[in-house]
Give the backbone structure.
Amino acid sequence: MTNLAKLDFVALDIIGKNYLTWVLDAKIHLEAGNLGDTIKEDTSTSSQDRVKAMIFIRCHLDKGLKSEISPQLKICGETITEEDMLERTFNTYHASYMLLQQQYRKRGFTEYNQLISVLLVAEQNNELLMKNHQS
């Protein structure tokens, strides 16, 4: 597994443009490491193998995506709801950004992915504005 932990193929892009090739590469590498069953439903793989597979997959994700895989995880046996994730995101805003938090709340997001997509676009726009300002 230590050899598999190296970045053997391109990480999944934050916008998912390389998703299909990434999935194929991930499946091949998991199979090669005898971890292919860990990504199948209704499997009796050991928790140790599932953890190895999760570590491998996390190593092959864009940094921005690593925080987004939490919707797929269960914490202490309890599934995290969309409302929980939205609330957690809103509550992590710095106090100086309270107005932004209120504006995003008023937009009435019902799905975490919608909010994250809007935040990512806003972040990209801010970076572009900063680059333009610096030049």
